[in-house]
Specification:
This protein has two domains: about 300 residues, FAD/NAD(P)-binding domain, CATH 3.50.50; about 140 residues, Elongation Factor Tu (Ef-tu), domain 3 (Beta Barrel), CATH 2.40.30. It has 13 helices and 16 strands. It has a six-stranded antiparallel beta sheet. Strands 6-2-1-7-16 form a five-stranded parallel beta sheet. Strand 4 and strand 5 form a beta hairpin. Helix 1 packs parallel to helix 11. The structure holds flavin-adenine dinucleotide. The site of flavin-adenine dinucleotide has 37 residues, from helix 1 and helix 11. Flavin-adenine dinucleotide binds next to helix 1 and helix 11.
């Protein structure tokens, strides 16, 4: 008698779930895939197709200067269905990987539906499945399942709303101006950007002028005091930010020996202190305007935003509290989580974590241990961040260069420029990823050499909402 084919369940056929199902099936594991659309629709999806792109049609900037470019190459190397489909349905978009959205999701839908090892169930899942599974129900997870997840992880570990402040790369902060201190000489955990009256006036004027993104009808923005956007605080009066998140009291600037007129504070986001978020600066400002306003803060004049502030509906877990780096729930071994629900942000990040969760769930079904990509790779950096970030006010994360280890700075140099170090980080990351995947016994396609991006295309591709 032959033993039955090992199997797993995948819930949600979005970017993460489709990739998870196909990754598991590629390893010879049978998959029961549950997708509630089109029977039950979300407020953002428009079709019954899998891997639907709900907003922009871009999977991010390409090439060796882009963090998303590295992740795309890693995913291509392990045969990602999302990358295969993106490459087949791409549209000209300068340095970005943009796709013809219907063709893109149709191709993935066909690949999933035609796979002999995948059985699609057009049903809403209302309980966490028994046995090995991947939960990839996304930012608009249906209510009953959200309730189940909240019950399992604890209410406070599941968020339904993303009110995020910009996160800034430490290396772009001007420490000749910014000082490290806590209020009233308490532990010096914060970075403080001091402002005099003229600087505050200029900042306030720019904030008043800055344009907010217009919420779509599926995103009714209801602010509660704790997560009021900075532009809304400013609307209440010129001094309101100065008595709120920009309060200078107790922050003695070592250069003047006095409290400044106003101060913006930054709080550490990752263990190494390479990413810092602006405290109380949750914002729905358009990305260009957001960057311009941040650049008016003394010490942040050249700040690189690695994750822009957003205000929108989002269901996600407090990843560092509840997830292992292999994307398994600490409290429920055998249940893997992927996509936005796992605390990532972005189409590409969702697909990549889907691939890893599907691979690990399938490996468990085959009696093999979990694998986690190396730290030098973008996927390894992202999954390690999910498991180890600061759990206080955790916000979903996009990939960025601060997720992978820094290159040593040669003696006699203060720092390395982006154009110098990113191509090196790209090659180190991709090599480490490919070697790791081969060692893990996965099918690997030799990465093709990439074309250098043109200068005008080097800016990170914003997530358009
Ligand atoms: C409105 C909005 C706009 C966004 N715009 C962008 C953008 O422009 N660019 C970008 O990179 N990222 C964007 N994101 C963030 C994110 O990248 C996408 O939401 C991405 O689709 C997430 O992938 P996912 O697989 O986690 O979730 P999804 O792609 O949403 O897939 C989840 C699937 O699970 C299904 N599902 C939910 N609950 C159940 C259930 N109980 N039973 C069965 N099926 C269920 C849903 O129908 C859906 O098909 C946006 C997010 C939102 C909410």
């Amino acid at each position: 008698m032959t033993s039955p084919t090992p199997s797993i369940t995948v819930v949600g056929a979005g970017l993460a779930g489709s990739e998870a199902a196909l990754a598991a099936a590629r390893l010879g594991v049978r998959v029961d895939l549950y997708e509630m659309r089109p029977k039950v629709m979300t407020l953002a999806h428009r079709s019954g197709n899998f891997a639907e792109l709900v907003c922009s049609n871009s999977l991010g900037g390409q090439g060796e200067l882009q963090a998303k470019g590295l992740l795309q190459s890693e995913m291509r190397a392990v045969g990602s269905a999302v990358l295969e489909s993106a490459d087949a349905s791409r549209l000209p978009a300068g340095g970005a990987l943009a796709v013809e959205r219907e063709a893109f999701s149709q191709r993935i839908t066909d690949a999933v539906r035609r796979h002999p090892l995948i059985t699609v169930h057009g049903e809403e899942v209302t309980e966490l499945p028994v046995g090995l599974c991947v939960i990839a129900t996304g930012p608009l997870t249906a209510e009953v399942l959200s309730g189940e997840l909240a019950r399992l992880t604890g209410d406070e570990q599941l968020a339904f709303y993303d009110a995020a402040a910009p996160v800034i790369a430490f290396e772009s902060i001007n420490m000749d101006i910014v000082f490290r201190a806590g209020r009233y000489e308490q532990s010096a955990d914060y970075l403080n950007c001091p402002m005099n009256k003229e600087e505050y006036d200029a900042f306030y004027a720019a904030l008043e002028q800055a344009r907010s993104h217009t919420p779509h009808d599926w995103e009714k923005l209801e602010f509660f005091e704790g997560c009021m956007p900075i532009e809304e605080i400013a609307r209440r009066g010129k001094d309101t930010p100065r008595f709120g998140p920009m309060k200078p009291r107790g922050l003695t600037d070592p250069r003047t020996g006095r409290w400044p007129y106003a101060a913006a504070q930054l709080r550490q986001e990752d263990q190494e202190g390479r990413m810092w978020s602006l405290v109380g600066f949750q914002t729905g400002l358009k990305w260009g305007d957001q960057l311009a306003v941040v650049h008016l803060i003394p010490g942040l004049e050249n700040a690189e935003i690695v994750r822009y502030g957003v205000m929108h509906r989002n269901t996600y877990l407090n990843a560092p509290k509840v997830l292992e780096a292999d994307l398994q729930l600490k409290l429920r071994p055998g249940t893997f989580v992927a996509g936005v629900l796992a605390g990532t942000e972005g189409y590409l990040e969702s697909a990549a974590t889907g691939w890893l969760a599907g691979t690990n769930a399938a490996r468990a079904a085959l009696g093999l241990g979990s694998i986690v990509p190396p730290q030098e790779s973008m996927l390894g950096g992202l999954t390690r961040y999910l498991a180890s970030a600061n759990p206080k006010n955790y916000q979903p994360m996009n990939v960025n260069w601060a997720l992978v280890p820094e290159l040593p700075v040669p003696e006699g140099r203060k720092k390395l420029g982006k154009r110098e170090k990113r191509p090196v980080l790209y090659r180190l990351g991709l090599n480490a990823f490919v070697t790791w995947a081969r060692d893990a016994g996965l099918d690997v396609t030799e990465p093709t050499p990439i074309e250098p991006p043109r200068a005008a295309e080097e800016t990170a591709e914003p997530v358009l909402r």
